[in-house]
Amino acid sequence: MTIRNFSSPRQLGVALAVSATLCGGLAFAQAPARSAAAPAAAAGSVNLNQTVKIAWLDPLSGLMAAVGANQLKGFQFLAEEFTKKNKAGVKFEIIGIDNKLSPQETTNALKSAIDQGARYVVQGNGSGPALAIMDALSKHNERNPGKEVLYLNYAAVDPDLTNSKCDYWHFRLDADTSMKMEALTAYMKDQPEIKKVYLLNQNYSHGQQVAKFAKANLSTKRPDVQIVGEDLHPLAQVRDFAPYIAKIKQSGADTVITGNWGSDLSLLIKAANESGLNNVKFYTYYGGVTGTPTVLSAASANRVYMVSYNHLNMGGDIQKLQADYKKKFNDDFYTGAIFHAFAIMTDAMAKTKSTDPAVVAKAMEGLRFNSFNGEVEMRKSDHQLQQGLYITRWEKAGGKFAYDAENTGYTFVPVKYYEPYVASTPTSCQMKRPS
């Protein structure tokens, strides 16, 4: 029998009659109902009748191409949905450019996007490319007043991006590495079977931060837990993780913590399953990302966990959007931050009656709205979205959690929900705002 520990009555499916608030033409059910409605016209709508070009800069080649392709389709899909009806009366156009997961290529792609008239940029795969965008836009916007470009970061989670390296023109819609580790270790603290942990991560800022915050959090919350091994490997280059699995076996670990994503997680899980490493649990950040659910399949049931701001069985209108996406692309819509990108933009545009990034950026600061994972807030001090997080476990799909990932018959089922204040971490950002 599976026992699920929910910290909020929301997770018990309590249906309450609630009113709705309008955000950018989107009706969000107020908490505690957890749903996000599809784009809808609303009282007080404005018709700006403008086309907003959004440049998408992420990988469409190399080992992470499948992840990029899924997310580009996600942006194109929601651009169409939000264009049909939104409170600002704007049209969205997506310009997709392959950045090859390279900071240098990202800088070149950004220049091309600006030349094509894009004044909004979205990116998420890799904190190196994210920092390249931030550096380039900081210089561009200072040199070109009146032609500013705004960056919406939907998945690059290095905490430094909203701390020591924070920038006014950067807004992060995902929870950062430290926030997710706060939630993950809050859950792990109450799992007495966890005694020996192995840290396996990609050797770049995000992976290094996962290891750093895992050690710090566990030492405080579970000082009895041993870190029995730690490895950092090249990003998107390893094709055989068998040697790493052998080291995990030898260490005697009962748990692995990994921030790996894309092929680096899929190939890691594949090697673990092939080696018969079935007595070790994996705590992940990106278990639901393209390719990984297929590798997880039945072999990983009840052994793989994920921390995220959403899951595939949220219910409400976000579920309908997921179903429509699946019908159109035969793929899963798992990057909910894409939804938040359009929601926060259209709300700010409607409120200001402007698509000017300088005006929109100011309106986005401190913005709150109810979404599919509860009330979210774009914290003004560092432009880090504050939001609730789920701990989910890979299980057989069924009942209230019937939507399966990648047609596997399995899905990530929520076992714990943490309110935004639990995962929120302080910021050291000293925001320099335009005069």
Structural overview:
With 435 residues, the protein is an alpha/beta fold. The protein folds into two domains: 39-175 and 315-387, Response regulator (Rossmann fold); 178-308 and 389-422, Response regulator (Rossmann fold, 3-Layer(aba) Sandwich), CATH 3.40.50.2300. It has helices spanning 65-84, 103-115, 127-143, 177-188, 205-221, 242-251, 263-274, 292-296, 316-329, 337-352, 357-364, 420-423, and strands at 20-23, 26-29, 36-39, 50-58, 90-98, 120-123, 150-153, 170-172, 196-202, 226-233, 255-258, 281-284, 304-308, 368-371, 374-378, 385-386, 389-396, 410-418. The strands form four sheets. The protein has a seven-stranded mixed β-sheet, sandwiched between helices. A hairpin with a 6-residue loop joins strand 2 (26-29) and strand 3. The longest helix has 20 residues, at 65-84. The N and C termini lie far apart (60 Å). Residues 1-35 have low confidence and may be disordered.
* DSSP E strands, number: 18
The quaternary state of the protein chains shown equals: single chain
Radius of gyration: 21 Å
Give the H and E element order: EEEEHEHEHEEHEHEHEHEHEHHHEEEEEH
The CATH architecture of the largest domain can be named as 3-Layer(aba) Sandwich
Model regions low in confidence, pLDDT < 50 over at least 5 residues: 1-35
CATH topology of the largest domain: Rossmann fold
Number of domains: 2
Biggest sheet architecture: 7 strands, mixed
Strands ordered across the widest β-sheet: 10-9-11-12-13-17-18
CATH superfamily of the largest domain: Response regulator
